[in-house]
Each structure stands twice: as structure tokens, then as C-alpha cells.
Specification:
249 residues; globular; alpha+beta; two-stranded antiparallel sheet; seven-stranded mixed beta barrel
């Protein structure tokens, strides 16, 4: 005897709704929120051997209701003191995940305040193990590309007033990352940022950080894959390539 099935089948309208929901979820996954946008011009942050040390690390949030111009080298109102190691086209913008800040505050036993590590973008929604070298971000009318992790220098120690902060950042890999500007444009201080394209090579910011720390070349394949990435900043590629060259038979 044939029985009429009571199983419901999706109607065309249901499929459309499902597809719209899936597209909406995908879109949200590709969005990066901005907790703040921060800028500063160089100021004296301390002294070393009797000499003033100038830096643009002491940044302050801008008005979230406004917008800024992003050029190929920095945000309007932002600047660097030592252009040999800071700033430039491959390090035009520095992004740092705000998800790390609560942990930092507990570790350091202090309130961190705004832009505690000199970040231009305090982000929400992406970490070092997710952001890829070569990822393209659309922010307002500008396009940016992830280029390298941060390798903190002594100015972070002066800025935070702690000798351990540099070592902690390097050992944990909570470095944040830099971006180059592919297309200058007007950017809203309140975001959001759209991940326009994820790099297919899947080399993450954390991979690049681990490769730089692998001075003994224990993971040569990882170091090679990072060094070979065409979007990697040259300042990060050069020491990796030199290391690989010294260890070739």
C-alpha cells in the first residue's frame, strides 16, 4: 500500500530565504569592526643615553562620527619619526586585535588606555591566526593589503614604561599586523572594514611571525612558504631569504 509522505519539502521561497541567510552570515564573517581609529604625530616618549626619543606611538582615538583620508603612506593626522624602520608603503597602517587587550591588562596589572600599542586600527573580529598575508581589506573607498606582523622595538618599552612588554608580545605572537594601501581613499572612523579577498595561499600573520622566530630553521618549509609570498613586505622577506640561503647545502 502506498503511503503519502508527510515529509515537507523546501519550497522555492524557502530556498531563497535560506540562501539569503547564508549570504548574510558569510558577509558578517567577512566584516571587521573598528573599536577605534587612532593617530598621532611624533612626540618625545623618553630618553636614551641622554638623547630624546621621538615616536608617533602615542596615538589617540579620532571622532567616530568623522572620516579620514588614507594615503599610500599613512592616515591623515598620523606620522612616524624614524622612517627607516617605521611607516613606509608596506607599513602604512598598523592594526591590532582588541580581543587581546583584556588579557594584556590582566598580565600587566594595569589599565591600558586607548591605542596601548600604538595601533592605528583597534579591530574586532580577526586574530593573527586568521588574518592572512595578502588579504585585501576594503575600508570606505580605500583598499588595503596585509603585509607582515609587527616586530616591536625598544620604543614600545619606552611607551609602556615596562621592560617586559616587548618580550611578552614576541613570545605570545599577539603582534598585530601592518597593511599597505593599494588604493588611497576616504575612510570612516567607525568602520566597518570588509575583507574583500582572502589570500588563497593561506599564509597567516601568525605563520609569518613563527617563521621570523625560527632562527634555527627547524621548520624550513614554513619559512620558505612565508618568504615566497609575493605580498609579504620586503623588510620581512629579506632576513628570511638570507637565512634560507645560509642553510642551503
Amino acid at each position: 500500500m502506498n503511503r503519502t509522505s508527510t515529509r515537507s519539502h523546501p519550497r522555492p521561497g524557502d530556498r531563497l530565504v535560506h540562501r539569503q541567510v547564508q549570504e548574510s552570515l558569510k558577509e558578517r564573517r567577512n566584516l571587521i569592526q573598528l573599536a577605534s581609529v587612532n593617530v598621532a604625530t611624533p612626540s618625545v616618549i623618553g630618553q636614551v643615553q641622554g638623547e630624546h626619543v621621538w615616536s608617533g606611538i602615542r596615538k589617540s582615538p579620532v571622532d567616530t562620527a568623522g572620516s579620514l583620508w588614507l594615503s599610500e603612506i599613512n592616515l591623515s593626522g598620523d606620522g612616524q619619526a624614524d622612517l627607516e624602520v617605521h611607516g613606509g608603503v608596506d607599513k602604512a597602517v598598523y592594526a591590532y586585535p582588541s580581543e587581546h587587550l583584556a588579557g594584556w591588562s590582566l598580565e600587566l596589572g594595569e589599565s591600558l588606555g586607548a591605542a596601548p600599542f600604538g595601533e592605528n586600527l583597534s579591530t574586532l573580529g580577526v586574530l593573527e591566526q586568521e588574518a592572512r598575508i595578502g588579504d585585501v581589506w576594503e575600508w570606505g573607498t580605500a583598499l588595503l593589503q596585509v603585509t607582515q606582523p609587527r616586530w616591536p622595538c625598544y620604543k614600545l618599552v619606552l611607551h609602556r614604561g615596562r621592560s617586559d612588554v616587548q618580550k611578552r608580545m614576541l613570545s605570545t605572537g599577539r603582534t598585530g599586523w601592518y597593511l599597505r594601501v593599494l588604493r588611497p581613499g576616504e575612510v570612516p572612523a567607525s568602520g566597518p572594514i570588509v575583507v574583500d579577498a582572502q589570500d588563497p595561499r593561506r599564509v597567516t600573520v601568525r605563520d609569518a611571525h613563527l617563521a621570523m622566530r625560527d632562527t634555527a630553521l627547524r621548520q624550513p618549509d614554513l619559512v620558505q612558504s612565508v618568504a615566497d609570498h609575493p605580498a609579504l613586505a620586503e623588510q620581512w622577506r629579506a632576513p628570511l631569504a638570507a637565512r634560507l640561503g645560509r642553510h642551503r647545502p
